[in-house]
Amino acid sequence: MIMEMDMDAMAGAIGVSVPVLRFLLCFAATIPVSFLARFVPGSFLKHLYSAGTGALLSYVSFGFSSNLHFLVPMLAGYASMILCRSRCGIITFFLGFAYLIGCHVYYMSGDLWKEGGIDVTGALMVLTLKVISCAINYNDGLLKEEGLREAQKKNRLIKLPSLIEYFGYCLCCGSHFAGPVFEMKDYLDWAEGKGLWSTSAKGASPYGGTIRALLQAGFCMALYLYLVPYFPLSRFTEPIYQEWGFWKRLGYQYMSGFTARWKYYFIWSISEASVIISGLGFSGWTESSPPKPRWDRAKNVDILGVEFAKNAVVIPTVWNIQVSTWLRHYVYDRLVPKGKKAGFFQLLATQTVSAVWHGLYPGYLIFFVQSALMIAGSRVIYRWQQSVAPAVANVLSFMNFLYTLLVLNYSCVGFMVLSLHETLASYGSVYYIGTILPIVLILSGYIIKPGKPVRSKARKAE
């Protein structure tokens, strides 16, 4: 009773609900728990520790039912690997997404998140990607190396992981709540002290990287808490917003997107610190002299890369990086027929999978279709850049930057407000400029065909 009163008082003091406070405390606890994982001897105990601490923190944060939810896709994926290895990847993909969609519909978590609540679906989203990638990589273990992409060769599993290895990978608390998603092969190498984590990892101190990530998390949360009262999402349907002029409404859309992103930067910075301190975030050494350890395996966002993106094509490589990598390896690349180039279909299909993974709200679906249009439009400008003189190319490059800034922040309103009414109200308030502009660029790309790249002509002349 006293503890509940303390939680109520603490939650009220920082302006969040008790469930969110409980989640934040468990989320922060992943850092010391991950630190202690470094000292667990032997791979079996490491797997046991990863699975046990992940399940315990989930129980404290979300309640007993959370672990029952996790068991469904985990056991479905493992059963498919045992019973039907040649099809286990596709079976697990559809079963995992079917269960996740069911939970999205049942909990309607987007509404809860908008109201300051939280539930288990965020952690279930991360778990679903892990389960699917493990099954697909085990499926790939049947294939011959010739003809496989580099990522397939690196991540494929020849042998079925044991149940404790599998549970440890799925529930590893450093990435369990909010990612990043990483590969089973890397997790096994880390637990067993193989590959990068054998002799090459010795002398690589994680403390500098951890402190950097924590300082980044503190800055991001402070900025978010400062900005959010000034740019509430509810304003898009308020009469005062409709009274503003076009440029003020467009500016408000930019500031709303800018403000919301700092919350994600905070969450991913905490996850990054947790994975780095465990040692799993190690990704090799720099080529500098003396060499320095790299800790970017856990990096999920490049803040400056997002805020100053030169074009929309780079956004997936700097935002939610590990999920973008997952989508590229397990959706985008696998939809491209052998010997063919990827086109708009692969891009749209990948963005649709990403939208469904987030939830079935109209705002998500509209945002990811918008993202596909935004990237396709940016590619057109980039192709034009490559075929003109440097002076004109610089102008087009700046135009691509402005285009990305406008369309990204216009599009992400749908991701934030979720409902169809609010999404269309905000888009309509700026005359759908962020939808019309990419479509005009895509159509213009068919009419104004770029010539051969100027740089390659210059090389030929040399």
Itemize the secondary structure elements and their pairings.
Blueprint: H1 2-14, H2 18-37, H3 43-62, H4 64-83, H5 88-107, H6 109-114, H7 121-140, H8 150-155, H9 163-171, H10 173-176, H11 184-192, H12 207-227, H13 239-243, H14 246-278, H15 303-307, H16 315-318, H17 321-332, H18 344-358, H19 362-385, H20 390-417, H21 420-429, H22 433-447, H23 454-461
Helix pairs in contact: 1-2, 2-3, 2-14, 3-4, 3-9, 4-5, 4-7, 5-7, 12-14, 14-20, 17-18, 18-19, 19-20, 19-22, 20-21, 20-22
How many domain regions? 2
Our measurement of the CA-to-CA distance between the termini, rounded to an integer number of angstroms, reads 80 Å
Strand fraction equals under 5%
Instruction: Give the low-confidence spans.
Output: 456-462
Judged by helices, strands and strand pairing, the structural class is: mainly alpha
Largest sheet: none
Fold and architecture overview:
- The model is unreliable at 456-462 (pLDDT under 50).
- The protein starts with a helix and ends with a helix.
- Helix content is 71%, strand content 0%.
- The chain has 23 helices and no strands.
- It has two domains: 2-201, no CATH class; 302-461, no CATH class.
- It is an all-alpha fold and 462 residues long.
- α4 packs parallel to α7 (121-140) and α14 (246-278) packs across α20.
